[in-house]
Amino acid sequence: MTAKTLFEKVWERHEVVPETADTPAVLYIDLHLVHEVTSPQAFSLLREQNLKVRRTDRTLATMDHSTPTDAAEIAGRVPIKVKSAAQQIQQLEKNCTEFGVELLNLHNSQRGIVHVIGPELGATQPGKTIVCGDSHTATHGAFGALAFGIGTTEVGHVLATQCLLQRRPKTLAINVDGKLPAGVTAKDLILAIIGKIGVAGGTGQVIEYRGSAIEALSMDGRMTVCNMSIEAGARAGMIAPDEVTFEYLQGRPKAPQGAAWDQAVAEWRNLRSDVGAKFDREVNINGNELVPMITYGTHPGMVIPINGLIPNQTNDAVFMKSLAYMGLQPGEQLLNKSIQVVFIGSCTNARLSDLELAAQVMKGKRVASGVRALIVPGSQAIKRDAEKLGLDKIFIDAGAEWREPGCSMCIGMNGDTVASGQYAVSTSNRNFEGRQGAGSRTLLASPATAAAAAIRGCVTDPRELLN
Ligand code: SF4
């Protein structure tokens, strides 16, 4: 029997029609996650063609991108300030009611960022094919699912047929062995990976993250790593499911229950790359050598160790344009650079362990004068859990803002923006020009680094405050 990679096993189980030289494969989709931004046109398409949603039981909608993070707006005590956001929210309510799709609406206690609630509810499971009209769908690959973002037209195709036309990607194994040193997180690991392979390093490939440093990560950490696969250009990221995965999923509302659980786990145990399976390419990384990382440019591949220097690529016009936007110089260090905003949130780093880490840094301290620190949990469930642990009090006592769940400052929505020229240390995943607001300058980092910057008012090595 031919040895197969994890990706090959999942792909082959879902191939309805194999690809040919002229036509892509038809791939069956197990779970379609929907949100308010990329679905309106798709539902309009169904209406125009007089089509139904083929599998409402495999479709789950939530609201995240356009939802306000102000409690008064969520509760309806004041209107949602941004009219277009309010319209998108209303439209998704209307579409889900009309087409019979389950929706976690603005007032639902399970609502949250789409890539947070899928795993949290147990809808994300090993071996599934999962799509969503959002680039960071790769997050769900942390469970051994094949998960990727799709465009608006494809959202319509999946709603109507539960299938998708796809060319088979190539495979890339990233082997991370060793042990991440204290103060080095999953976010630092994925930033270091993108720094090594580049933002096009995974183009046309599905990455499988393997090795002892990956196996040692919690599910939250694995989701952070897979989330940013797209920032290395990859189609998806995957991690083989193991006891950590099963323990996370057991008992979650949409996970299999009783005998079905035992049967599912028995099948999931086979979802590993076979010994001798061939990848199109392999990259090795020594986890022992990693340090906290921070970006300095306008894509996540422009990244340095927290105490490193910005490279001297003065003859690279694109590089210099990026630095000009960021107001930085070649050879400059970021350490001690003043910042004005800190954002701890997004589908990359707004889970409970991320908030716990930030709270560990901020406990008993005050946010530096002149810094706005925004803490946005990834879901209502995470918000409740954090409040049970008293994390909200730690943040509020420190002078940070404790908000309602949503995408928030990751995309600069509903007034959660960074002003032109301001520096923001953000735990999100994208730092291109204007991502957090026109003229905003984003430095991507871990929750520990972001929290340390909030306290000191400048880029800080988090290990100084964690010790
Ligand atoms: S948090 Fe940011 S990256 Fe994640 S789904 Fe929302 S907008 Fe997309």
Keywords:
single chain, about 475 residues, alpha/beta, Aconitase, domain 3, Aconitase, Domain 2, 3 domains, five-stranded parallel sheet, about 35% helix, globular, binds iron/sulfur cluster
Provide structural commentary:
It is a single chain. The chain contains 18 helices and 19 strands. It is 34% helix and 16% strand. The longest helix is centred in the N-terminal third of the chain and has 17 residues, at 83-99. Helix 7 (186-197) packs parallel to helix 9 (219-227) and helix 14 packs across helix 16. The mean pLDDT is 97. By secondary structure, it is an alpha/beta fold. The chain has helices at residues 6-14, 40-49, 71-75, 83-99, 114-120, 152-161, 186-197, 212-215, 219-227, 243-249, 258-268, 317-326, 346-349, 352-362, 380-388, 391-398, 447-456, 463-466; strands at 15-17, 25-28, 31-34, 59-62, 102-104, 129-132, 146-149, 163-166, 170-177, 205-210, 236-238, 281-286, 293-295, 303-305, 341-344, 372-375, 401-402, 423-426, 441-444. It is globular and about 55 Å long. It has three domains: 6-166, Aconitase, domain 3 (2-Layer Sandwich), CATH 3.30.499; 170-245 and 266-289, Aconitase, Domain 2; 293-466, Aconitase, domain 3 (2-Layer Sandwich). The strands form five sheets. Strands 5-4-3-6-7 form a five-stranded parallel β-sheet, sandwiched between helices. It has a five-stranded parallel β-sheet with strand order 17-16-15-18-19, with helices on one face. Residues 64-65, 113-115, 134, 136, 346-347, 407, 410-411, 428-429 line the site of iron/sulfur cluster (SF4).
